[in-house]
Amino acid sequence: MNLLIRSMRSTGVPRARRPAPPRPLRASLSLLASLLLTFLCAAPWLTAHAAPIIALDHQLLVNPGAEDGAASVDGKEVVPIPGWSGPGNFTVDLYGGISIPLPESGRIGGGNHFFSGGPNNAYSTVSQRVDVGPLAADIQTGQVTVILSGFMTAYKRESDYGTIVMGQRDASGGAVLTNYVTLGPQEGNYGEWVYYRATQAVPKTTRYIDVQINAHRLLGVFNDAYFDNLSLVLTKTLPRAPTPVADPTRAFRPNILNPNPNAEDGPVSPSGNDIVAIPGWTTTGAFTVTAYGGPSAPTVAQGAAVAGQNALFTGGAGDKPSSATQTVDLSAFAAEADTDKLDIRLYCALGAAGEGSQSARVLLEELDANDQVLLTLDPPSQLGSSNGMTAYLWEAPVVKGMRKARITLLATPEPGAAHNDAFFDNVQLRLIDTIPLPNGGSTYYAPPLTYGANLLTDPGAEDATPQFDTYGNVVPIPGWATTGNFSAVHAYSPGFGSSPEMERIGGGQAFFSGGNSAPISTASQTVDVNSLSQAIDEGGVNAHLEGQLSGWITQGDYGRVLARFLDYTSTPIGEPLFIGPVAGGAPNGLKFRFVQNDAAVPPGTRFIETLMVARRTNGVYIDANFDNLSLSLHPVTTPALLYGDVDGDGSVAVADVILLLRYAVHLGPLTAEQVARADINHDGVASFLDAPLILRRLVGLPWNN
Fold it and tell me: Which one of 245, 279, 298, 342 has the lowest number of neighbouring Cβ atoms within 10 Å?
């Protein structure tokens, strides 16, 4: 998913604050349990609605701007909404009333009405299911994209917020994609609309698309989250523009020059003790092929983390070194090799068991026509560890006269070991156009990467050293480049009331904050992802961005985090990935909210810049705060989360519901992953509203329709 958020502002008319009744600070578990029994019945609001025109490049939603039907004059009346249905008091409001002024309608073409969260409820939602079966012939080509967009805002700078969620489903109603598209969350913006837009590829099996509008109240009586001009459109996927010859983001030579790069051709020794023939490779010693998940071998999950399939190379039985060698004839590129305009690039995934001297190493040699060595690329070895497989990339210029390339896999065991547990996979050779290497040298070793790992340095400000009793001092943050007065704050400084909050989110001793004096401040960090460039260029990598964001009490200062995709010249490509904005906190200070989002990594990406942006709307300090950030990359085949399995033990049980309920009433923490597993209704938060759906899944009732 590519997500673009653009702020659209005009002058709004303030309104009187609606009085808020006192709210209990903690609900009882017994009351929540009784609510669950009510919700166990089938949800009648998730009924199907047909759009008037089902065609490519047409609006597919019924009543996308709330113009069909009546509206509440003052927002206090709940009215039916044609085409939409759902629980709570979701309603339709009028422009020009006390919520949104008339000029805002004129600015976006909003008509007379807009959607509103409604009165007397903490959460309300409406949804609509669009039958795209008539477009099955187009969808089955795999060349269709869905575009979801809409406007959102909330009253003044309140913490009430809205999200718009889209999910794609097959003919039976089952989800066909693990990643739901979520626009928002969007909080109060003084009644000024903020435009959101997202795109997602449509799988060949998609037959229905669900769109759900969610409104969340955090303060007051009214659920002051507002929506208008929603749009759902299917369109033909645009072909990718050809890559310029000077841009090496895609190899213009054959994709992979060497045969059998991933050990998938030929037999496999399940135990790794039998020597088997390896097509395309000449071996020494006990070098062989084994399977992921076998004895001493990396697990299937560890193989998937480097795009491994079923088999991988290994050193074999015994405590003697072994090797595999392959010589690739590149004489077909002789004319280009002699122009100083080619680089040679080698991808490889390496692993080694144990914690000692056992190692896996790859050697690349450029040879002339007589097998004389012209240049040797000899990167460091992968020493033994328990961390599975790691992806590497190495690059060097092609020397004039090169006619062959020799790849050697070297497996070195520990002395006296029963098995040479060095592992290799996806050993792929390519030729690309010459570019200035990132390190400015003649050879370049890209930082090793693993799918799923957090790529950020100091993601929680724990490496900074803020003073205990001050807030305004600017301190350096290792790994981050800052502007303005962006800084780190000691979480337990007097006056923050943050001790329980930091414990709830596992926030450690410090968090990021916007600092004082400046109206805007930022912190940025750039990650080199060249090691995964092959998979990225084939459209096979997703980026996941998440973090904890908070404002301060009810102030309007807000924070946002974005990940920008950069090419080899550090020029942005594609659309950035956003989380936030988040404003406001708890009545006594901080209230972190977990937010997350996913997007496809655009082909050509070589670096990803993560940028925290803190903005001040009033006062001296920028009260936008951040913690526990994570940027990770995942193959597009990442298995779906088992939603409802809060504790992550592989099954959905009553214990998962108890964990969720304790979290909902602030009696226990959940990790970011547990929150994602608990969010079974995909509204972006884990709350007691997820509990009935988890129970339905537990007892075998429909839960995801």
Answer: 245
The answer to whether 391 touches 450, Cβ cutoff 8 Å, is: yes
Asked whether 514 and 546 are in contact (CB, 8 A), the reply is no
**Residue 691, phi-psi category: left (phi > 0), alpha (psi -120 to 50), beta (remainder):** alpha
Q: Residue 28 burial by CB count (10 A; 0-12/13-18/19+): exposed, middle or buried?
A: exposed
660: Cβ contacts below 8 Å, ≥ 6 apart: 646, 670, 678, 686, 688, 690, 691, 694
517-542 pLDDT, tens per residue? 778 889 999 998 877 876 787 777 88
* pLDDT > 90: percent of the chain: 22
Per-residue DSSP letter, 618:
S
Q: Which tokens hold the place of 462?
A: 């724990």
Q: Which residue is associated with the tokens 């010459």?
A: 434
| Collapsed DSSP state (helix, strand, coil) of residue 69 | coil
The H or E element spanning position 544 is strand 541-550
Q: What is the pLDDT at residue 442? A: 52
Helices (H), 603-690: 654-664, 672-678
Neighbours of 9 (CB within 10 A): 12
Please name which of 399, 633, 611, 402 lies closest in space to residue 534, comparing C-alpha atoms: 633
| Residue from 596, 606, 536, 532 nearest 564 by CA | 606
CA–CA distance, 213 with 196 (Å, rounded to integer): 13
Q: Which amino acid is at 530?
A: N
Q: Note whether 624 and 520 are within 8 A (CB).
A: no
Hey, how many other C-beta atoms are within 10 angstroms of the C-beta on 197?
Answer: 16
What gap in Å lies between CA 147 and CA 236, rounded to an integer?
A: 11
Residue 389 is encoded by which pair of tokens? 């497989």
Q: Verify cis geometry, omega within 30 degrees of 0, for the bond prior to 581.
A: yes
Beta strands 373-377; 359-367: pairing state? antiparallel
pLDDT score, position 230: 93
**Residue 673's pLDDT is what?**
75
Residues 6+ apart with CB under 8 A from 436: none
CA distance 333 to 88: 67
Q: In terms of Cα–Cα distance, which of 589, 609, 330, 655 is closest to 457? A: 609
Q: What is the pLDDT of residue 84?
A: 95
Q: Write the CB contacts of 319 (distance below 8 Å, at least 6 apart in sequence).
A: 413, 414, 415, 416, 417, 418, 420
Tokens of 345: 């690039």
- Is 520 within 8 Å of 554 (Cβ atoms)? no
- H helix intervals, 129-242: 136-139
Segments in the chain below pLDDT 50? 1-51, 238-254, 638-640, 705
Are 316 and 411 in contact, with CB atoms under 8 Å apart?
yes
The answer, as to whether pTM is greater than 0.85, is: no
Q: From CA 586, how far away is CA 553, in angstroms rounded?
A: 5
167 and 180 Cβ atoms separated by less than 8 Å: yes
Helix axes 691-698, 654-664, angle to 10 degrees: 180
Tell me the CA distances in angstroms from 320 to 61, 265, 270, 287, 407, one per residue in order: 67, 25, 20, 10, 20
| HSE (side-chain half, CA atoms, 13 Å) at 519 | 2
The per-residue pLDDT for 444 is 57
Question: What is the reported pLDDT for 51?
Answer: 44
Question: Rounded to whole angstroms, how far apart are CA atoms 684 and 320?
Answer: 54
Distance of CA 347 to the CA centre of its chain: 24
Distance CA 100, CA 264 (A): 61
Q: What is the pLDDT of residues 242-264, one digit of tens each?
A: 333 333 333 334 456 788 888 98
